[in-house]
Amino acid sequence: MVEIVLSLSLLILLNAGMMVFAGAKSVMALSRIGRFERVDEPEPPDIAPWAATHDFHYIAAFRLSLSPVSTVIHGWRHAHSATFLVKYHARANSSSRVQEQGCDLATYFAPDVSIHSTNMKSGNYYPSRPHSYTQSFPRMSLDNLWNIHQEMCDYLTHDGGARPTTEDRPLDHIMIESVRQHMAYIRNLPLWQLRQLYWHFLRRRFWHNLTIRQQRDKGKINLPNEYNPQQALRV
Prior knowledge:
Order of helices and strands: HEHEEEEEEHEHHH
């Protein structure tokens, strides 16, 4: 009996070690992203009508390949604000099986404030860096996601002191810089490699389906005009 318990404990430790190693490898790979590969793909027909109705104009499609997953990224820019719509379609390189797909909405404010709303289950996997806010609602319709996104944009401007701005950079440049800054923030957190066990198994459960307002009310985040450096510890 003792041998079985020890064997199980050893397997758990080995699996945890492998997960920590794989997670650290992913963070390092994302930190070194240089560019997205532009691909010749048409505007996805499942999103095109919605995008046109809501004043989003199609930009282009890109591919990000990080073994063992390849992700095709379609992007749209809003006609009247610094807001982007992004659709992700991720699949394992070794098979045709779709690993995950969904949409993000991102709006940029001054000074250095952004809000990201996603209906992907991987949302809120990592802690967000200060002034970069993420709200995740797995499998939510794009209509509902857009309504919540707009409501929380208003909340950040009226209650948080964020100011509307313009964003003229190409979408792929914005995304690359955002990923690099995010991974740099993660790597500066104490014991970030070990924290990945919590992030993987538990974190998303506590952050899914919470608006930015609800996150703030629960003490999980601070608004831009009330930022506290100790916020980084609540991850």
